[in-house]
Amino acid sequence: MTRTYDDRMFIETFEHEYTWLNGFLRNVRRYKDKPALIDPAVEKTWTYRELDEEVNMLANALKDDGVGKNDVVMSILNNCPEFCFTYIAPRKVGAIINLANYKLSPGEMARLIEHNEPKVVIYCAEMKDMVAEAVDRSSHKPLRVIMADNLDGEKLPLGHIAYPDYIEGHSKEAPARDFPHHIYDEVVRMCTSGTSALPKNVPLNDINEVLSAHDAIMHYPLNCNDVCMNMTPLFHRGGSRSGGTCPTFFVGACLVLLRAFSPRVTLNYVEKYKITYLTGSPSSLEMLARNQEKDPADISSLRGLVTMGAPLEKAACERFLEVLTPNILNGYGTTETFWNSFLRPYDLPEYAGSVGGSCIDDEVRVVKIYEDRKAEPDELIPMDNETVGEVILYCPGKTTYSYYNNPEEQEKKFYKGWMYTNDLGFWDENTYVTINGRKDDMIISAGENIYPTQVEEAINEFDRVADCMVTGVPDKARGQAIAAYIVPADDELTVKDVFDYCLETPMLSAYKRPRWYKLVDSLPMTATGKKQHYVLKQQAEKDLEEGLLKRK
Predict the structure, then answer these.
(1) Within a 13 Å sphere around the CA of 54, how many CA atoms are in the beta-carbon half?
(2) The domain that contains 482 carries what CATH number?
(3) Could you tell me the CA-to-CA distances from 552 to 203, 408, 443, 508, 539 in Å, in that order?
(4) Last residue of a domain, one of 181, 197, 221
(5) Within its chain, how far is the Cα of 390 from the centroid?
């Protein structure tokens, strides 16, 4: 294509230099003595220079192990310093960091390892039994399995190596670059919830990373003087990209680590470290408000509370605005696309309950629903705040519109530059969207996405179960809890038998185990034999109120 100017230098510079890593390195030069990372658990602070040196030691260790362009390094880490080192270091050798959910069961993790074939696995010590069993089960054997964040002196499983030993003796200088960077290179691979035991793997390229950082920076807004802490796991996209490693280190701010959420500890950290932005789910905000009312901490440093994963109810929002901060931001999106709509402080509390309007560079629409095909992106439903359709997302800057090695799911989700979410909702004349359900009946419990079919698949492997269905029921602590309806294969089956099976099976993570159970003769089905989850959901809520669901 002929242009009116010489575009060669622009193309070369933009495509090869406009990377997240270069943004981080600019801050190493600009703010070398400024705090970048604080770990309250060990009372240690890393400046940007010291953080870069830690990253370089890991990068050089990886390179000495032969890790290079497009190799995979799997991170099974909680919110610890090694998560941050591992988030950055693979980029320096051209590798891909695969952020895995450390809450998975051994069987689920084994499938994830087989699917991604990592050369190196780095995990936190508290997950050692799960990881050791997963590696043993997996047909793919990583070159290295490394235990990190070993605060309690856990004994290493056979064949594993301790993180300090792995990086010991390696240079604090950056490894020589022997490959070209490109903004379309995959640098991060995230894992989303799936309808089977294998999560969908979401590749993110370098420009996705840069523009995800920009999105958070301009919506907060975030600057180099901010101090951020995420109350959710950083392996989530909303964890690392909202007040986590991605925007914080890109803008030159400081990140405070919180391994596990505690409302009192969180409030104390806000006071001690002068945190300016907190990120978490609406349920965590409720616990913060309750603790702040009982025993107030000095949280005057807060510039904002960012929440996602569920809508804010109006009454709760009004309380949070009074007790915590007048600046609350609520984002809605997916692992594949980050957040795509946003409620700004000026939207609240009026629009509480909705997910707001589109982010600056994105577009959110609600389209018609068809049984046999996707609606076209311009087949919109009326903006009457009543008619229900499917929510679709357009965000070319923050997604690759793809899954790694999963063409079937890719075809289901992405179409003509849009992601079809399966979320059901309606919108108003201002294009503000309200979510009111899911086409696939996903359950959200304590911020985790759980698909009924996956749990059902695991329970149906029990030879004493003929069939089952699961759904979500209201739960004050989790938002939703899982209720399982079981059709016994024999008359002697008890709720305790099913509970014990769910506790022992390697195919169910702890957060996916049902909390409530009911033995039934049949399940709600269509005439063609399809399970009617929406019918079961209504029944389960009624059964819970009437005390007909049992724990064990």
Answers:
(1) 19
(2) 3.30.300.30
(3) 41, 38, 21, 17, 19
(4) 181
(5) 22
- Give the tokens for residue 105: 């069961």
Among 20, 421, 423, residue whose Cα is nearest residue 216 = 20
Residues 499, 515: Cα–Cα separation, whole Å: 9
The enclosing domain of 107 has a CATH number of: 3.40.50.980
Rounded Cα gap, residues 466 and 432, in angstroms: 44
Residue with tokens 């195919």: 507
- The residue range of the domain holding 482 is 443-545
Number of domains in the chain: 2
Burial class (CB in 10 A: 0-12, 13-18, 19+), 315: exposed
Do the Cβ atoms of 353 and 314 come closer than 8 Å?
Answer: yes
* Identity of the residue numbered 264: R
* 213 three-state secondary structure: helix
One-letter amino acid for residue 207 of the chain: I
Report the chain's C-alpha Rg in angstroms. 24
Kindly report the pTM of this predicted structure: 0.86
- Written as tens digits, the pLDDT of the chain (552 aa) is 789 999 999 999 999 999 999 999 999 999 999 999 999 999 999 999 999 999 999 999 999 999 999 999 999 999 999 999 999 999 999 999 999 999 999 999 999 999 999 999 999 999 999 999 999 999 999 999 999 999 999 999 999 999 999 999 999 999 999 899 999 999 999 998 655 557 899 999 999 999 999 999 999 999 999 999 999 999 999 999 999 999 999 999 999 999 999 999 999 999 999 999 999 988 889 899 999 999 999 999 999 999 987 778 888 899 999 999 999 999 999 999 999 999 999 999 999 999 999 999 999 999 998 878 999 999 999 999 989 899 999 999 999 999 999 999 999 999 999 999 998 889 999 999 998 777 767 788 887 878 788 899 899 999 999 999 999 999 988 889 999 999 999 999 999 999 999 999 999 999 999 999 999 999 998 655 667 887 898 899 999 999 999 987
